[in-house]
Design goal:
Helices cover 50% and strands 11% of the residues. By secondary structure, the chain is of the alpha+beta class. Helix 15 packs across helix 16, helix 21 runs parallel beside helix 23 and helix 24 packs parallel to helix 26.
């Protein structure tokens, strides 16, 4: 961004996105009383701009319009202009995104919304060019036209604002019929998801193509529990196509946000923490179920990318990497044929070019986004080499490319730490340690979770954001729920009962701060916070699970740990309330649908009794972790130190130690089996379980 003149009010913000606009000539305000009172006092409409720091088209609109002195002058004269970071204020983003979708039929970022002084939206859109272009009205002309309409003929604008607000209230109430989940209905929802499967390239739909990790996770669970081969094929095929495509960073690991083509080749190059946190567990599960070396490698590389490039020194994970570097989209990631050859020893160029899809003409504006179109066996046959030589040569080539790329200017990194996104990554890291048997991932999850509780949990409230060395923004429902879920994963990794205590405490706060007593579901904003237009409920699963769907999952897991019926009542209230909506629109409820699926699946309770460090316990845990068991509840009880565990998870109290040493108790489908005393015997029992 250019830096003319003195900074505006955004210079005081902690958000990296707002900081990017502090030298705009626009008289920006952050969302807050000063701006809202000014709009009412001066009877001016509000121009609300919502985006995030790694959004490419947000940067484009900022450069074209918000850095333009003439456009800024119009904004400053006729509007109160407010900037919002959608990652800090997802409550505002959801409300006004719904409004823009109602007004235009589509949404996205940058989000540009025009409001009355009482915050009712009357016009909106996403990116506007400075002048008319491609059928899109120019931002300069739009500003003038709406300002004149507001002054001279505002009645239609006020009427539109009132209508949109009323529709937002109806949407916030989420009409729907309360109903119990039935397995045949859940099967029907899976069939609807299957209809949009791309049989040629994997994934769902056409370009632009997003990973749709929540839909894939639901089909994984469904295929495993219902033994559905088609759902499994969709899941497995899609994972391989993404892993071989340009959506995956073949040199540095980790996934980009989406591809602009349907073949997964050309990405929109930003990398989001949540995408990688949600995709890594899918590859880990695929590895558990198949032993796939490809899935194991992708999972490890993705977790390693997060550790290397996204972990903060004090603990926790940053939120995103930008698509652009040096003002050019993808410059950090792409290679000309010449750059590629210069980075490698001459004897490896032909092999690496074939393996990574590099050609002189390139596949992206004359350069190459690297892909992995062939297996090592296919490469060996094509190049008349042994698979071992292909494997070793490609490993060396990728190491050289990585070292060469490190000398480039990196994209901007958004160094906000967002609680809900971190919770997702803590879960992924815990699963990484469980399945890959590498403690480095657990250590990062443990370090990050402790950082959040030490720095963002104050006066018995969770804050959402750590940025600029301070906590900001009250936590929303998904922050509490996703962090609570991660605490349960931390418990099932290190078996420290204090993680159970933390999850139970967060669940109690969800009930106290967010519960709608009328129907048993949860609001998105806590009861102590001001609400803009509508107090919504975060019902739809979007790029991450919704607050309500994750709350239902947490209460289900807590019920399984405790056998306490109030937790089950919470699950039933949420599931029954939104089940009808989920069946009508499984795309908006993919994570939600995993909860009734688990609810209807025979439970598996595993309780290990013995010291955590005992070899037999370790061997039995390894045997457990290597299997994909989504219905599993895992407790480890040390007979010498179990008072706290039995307080938090009362079912642990009934399991006694065996005289001859560590023992495992397995209960499946409400039936308990004789104690198991070694890993081989446990493996045999687990192999007999039919989901």
């Amino acid at each position: 961004m250019s830096q003319p003149g003195k900074p505006n009010r955004l210079a005081e913000a902690t958000s990296p996105y707002l900081q990017q606009h502090k030298y705009n000539p626009v008289n920006w305000f952050p969302w807050g009383p000063e701006a809202l009172e000014k709009a009412k006092r001066e009877d001016k409409p509000i121009f609300l701009s919502i985006g995030y720091s790694t959004c490419h088209w947000c940067h484009v609109m900022a450069h074209e319009s918000f850095e333009d002195e003439e456009i800024a002058a119009v904004m400053n004269e006729h509007y109160v202009s407010i900037k919002v970071d959608r990652e800090e204020r997802p409550d505002l983003d959801e409300i006004y995104m719904n409004a823009v979708t109602m007004l235009t039929g589509r949404g996205g970022w940058p989000m540009s919304v025009f409001l009355t002084p009482d915050l009712k939206p009357f016009y909106g859109g996403t990116y506007f060019p400075p002048e008319d272009r491609g059928g899109i009205p120019g931002f300069r002309r739009l500003l003038v036209a709406l300002a004149n309409a507001y002054k001279e003929n505002r009645a239609p604008l006020l009427d539109m604002g009132a209508k949109v607000t009323e529709r937002l209230k109806i949407l916030g109430d989420m009409p729907g019929q309360v109903q119990e989940p039935q397995l045949d209905q859940i099967k029907a929802a899976a069939e609807n998801l299957k209809k949009d499967f791309d049989e040629v390239h994997g994934g769902f739909g056409r370009a632009p193509k997003f990973p749709r990790s929540l839909e894939l996770a639901y089909l994984l669970h469904f295929s495993h529990i219902q033994n559905d081969p088609q759902a499994w094929e969709i899941f497995s095929f899609s994972l391989e196509k993404m892993a071989r495509g340009g959506i995956y960073d073949q040199v540095g690991g980790g996934f980009h946000r989406y591809t602009v083509d349907e073949k997964w080749v050309i990405p929109h190059f930003e990398k989001m923490l949540y995408d990688n946190a949600l995709l890594a567990p899918l590859y880990l599960a695929h590895y558990q179920l198949t032993g796939s070396d490809l899935s194991r490698r992708i999972a490890r590389e993705t977790l390693d990318f997060a550790l290397r490039e996204m972990e903060a020194p004090q603990g926790g994970f940053y939120s995103a990497w930008d698509a652009d570097s040096e003002g050019v989209e993808g410059k950090f990631y792409v290679w000309s044929a010449e750059e590629f050859s210069q980075a490698l020893p001459p004897d490896l160029v032909a092999l690496a070019a074939a393996a990574l899809g590099v050609t002189p003409e390139g596949n992206f504006e004359g350069k190459n986004v690297l892909t992995r179109p062939f297996t090592e066996a296919e490469l060996a046959e094509r190049l008349s080499l042994t698979e071992e030589k292909v494997r070793l040569g490609l490993r060396t080539a990728l190491e050289r490319l990585f070292m060469a790329r490190r000398r480039r200017v990196k994209p901007h990194r958004d160094e906000k730490i967002i609680v809900s996104w971190n919770g997702l990554m803590f879960t992924a890291m815990c699963l990484g340690t469980q399945i890959l048997r590498d403690g480095i991932y657990y250590e990062a999850a443990d370090r990050g979770a402790k950082f959040i509780f030490d720095n963002l949990f104050k006066e018995n409230r969770l804050h959402r954001i750590w940025s600029g060395g301070q906590a900001a923004v009250p936590g929303f429902l998904d922050d509490y729920a996703i962090l609570a879920n991660a605490c349960l994963d931390l418990y099932e990794t290190d078996f420290n009962p204090e993680w159970l205590a933390a999850a139970r405490h967060l669940a109690a706060l969800m009930e106290r701060l967010f519960l709608d007593e009328a129907d048993g579901t949860f609001f998105y904003v806590d009861s102590d916070q001001d609400v803009t237009l509508v107090r919504g409920k975060s019902v739809y699963d979007q790029v991450i699970p919704s607050g309500n769907s994750m709350a239902a999952r947490v209460f289900w897991r807590l019920y399984r740990f405790t056998d306490e019926s109030p937790y089950l009542d919470r699950v039933k209230a949420v599931v029954n309330r939104f089940m009808g909506n989920a069946l009508e629109n499984p795309w908006g409820f993919a994570h939600f649908l995993t909860v009734p699926l688990l609810y209807l699946t025979p439970p598996l309770d595993l309780t290990f009794v013995g010291p955590a460090g005992h070899d037999q316990i370790k061997e039995m845990l390894t045997e457990t972790y290597r299997r994909f068991l989504p219905q599993r509840r895992l407790i480890l009880k040390d007979p010498e130190d179990c008072a706290r565990l039995e307080e938090l998870a009362p079912p642990a109290g009934v399991y006694a130690p065996a005289a001859e040493g560590p023992v495992a108790y397995l209960c499946y489908d409400y039936t308990c089996q004789p104690p198991v005393k070694n890993a081989k015997e446990l493996a045999a029992r687990l192999n007999q379980i039919k989901s």
